[in-house]
Amino acid sequence: MLKTEQLSLARQMDMVFKELQEELSGLTSGTVFVQIRNNMIGKFGIRHNPLSGRSGRFTDVKEGMTDGQQSSFRLMALESLKYKRRWTHGEISYEFAIRQGMVIVDATLESNYNMANLMIRSPRNAYAESSEQFFG
Fold it and tell me: Taking the CB of residue 75, how many other CB atoms lie within 10 A of it?
């Protein structure tokens, strides 16, 4: 059995879209998010756009993304990984909508860093000496 750390980030992203397939088939817009820690996807999901309601009822969404639209979306998500540089912790959000039968996607890549990790990895005097030239 494979462990998550043995899978590339692209393969993990492919697995995310396979898991979300049924949910995406009922949506025409929203945001897919993936949270990344140590280059492994942990939490992921979809933030739905607000449901429209009138007269005490919500209207049923009759249509969602087709298999072809989902495939295009997945390929764009995989393509966006090429823009992830150097960071290992963060979140990627894919805001999507169907417009004139096409999937429109805006990707936001967010890197996260931890100061405690930076202080552990770096020599103690490295930052003290460089800060003196700015503040000394």
Answer: 13
pTM: 0.80
Kindly state the tokens that stand for 10.
């692209």
pLDDT tens digits, one per residue of 15-59: 999 999 999 999 999 999 999 999 999 999 999 876 777 888 877
CA distance from start to end of the chain: 56
d(CA 69, CA 81) in angstroms, rounded, equals: 19
From CA 62, how far away is CA 51, in angstroms rounded? 13
**Contact, 28 vs 95, CB < 8 A?**
no
**What does the alpha-carbon distance between residue 54 and residue 58 come to, in Å, rounded to a whole number?**
6
Distance CA 114, CA 133 (A): 24
Which three-class secondary structure state does DSSP give residue 83? Answer: helix
Give the Cα separation of 37 and 5 in Å (integer): 11
Q: How far is CA 49 from CA 32, 95, 97, in A?
A: 11, 10, 10
